Amino acid sequence: MIIDAHVHAGEYYRHFTARFADQMMATTGLPPEALSAPEDKLLAEMDAAGVDHAFLLAFDVRRVEGFSVPNTFVADLCARHPERFTGFASVDAGRPGAAEELRHAVTELGLRGLKTAPCYLRMSPADPRWFEVYETAQELGVPVLVHTGYTPAKNADARYFSPLLLEPVAKEFPELRLILAHLGTPWTTPCIDLLSRHPQLYADLSIFGTYQSPPTVAAALAHARVRGVLDRLLWGTDFPFATMSAAVARMARLTTDATPWPSGSAPLTPDEHRALMGGTAARLTQK
Ligand SMILES: [Zn+2]
Question: How far is ligand 1, taken at its centre, from the CA of residue 115, in Å?
Answer without folding.
Answer: 9
